[in-house]
Amino acid sequence: MVVFLVFLSLVTALAALAFAAVACARVRTLEGENRALLNRDFEVRSSGVDPRAVRDVAVVHYDALEEMSGARSFSVALLDGQGDGVVLTSINGRTEARTYAKAVIAGEGEVLLSTEEYRAVRSARLGYGPAGGTTGGAGTTRPRPAGTEEPVSVLSRSGHVPGEGRHTGGGE
What we know:
Distance between the termini: 73 Å
Shape: flat
Largest sheet: 5 strands, antiparallel
Strand order of the largest sheet: 1-2-3-4-5
Oligomer: single chain
Structural class: alpha+beta
């Protein structure tokens, strides 16, 4: 009985240690994102640009349907300096395409956002889209937001994916 209690205590302690490590890593990620949001807010307030103008844009491409491949579906976040704006989502299938628009207030959707829509909003808010602020210009490689998995298309001002040589559309 004592051996069982010791074993149970050891398993519980290891589980608590693993939970603490995961929580610590998540807190560090959120701390970095919060710092980036504060820096972007400072840029908006000190730039003299109308804070209501669209300045944060990001695109997320993905495969929404099993019948399609090639990341034909996408979500686009168009936000102002305070994180207000819209997310446009196009779900493309073999025979039809559906388009959705959802309002975003202060970086949060008025209605529940899908995972891809949330990733687009977060990427835009952190400056990983075409209006990346003063931290990078055209052709500058920007790190991906922590916790995002492939594929995320982040366009620079020239319409190129940073770090890649191929043209993704758009243009100057």
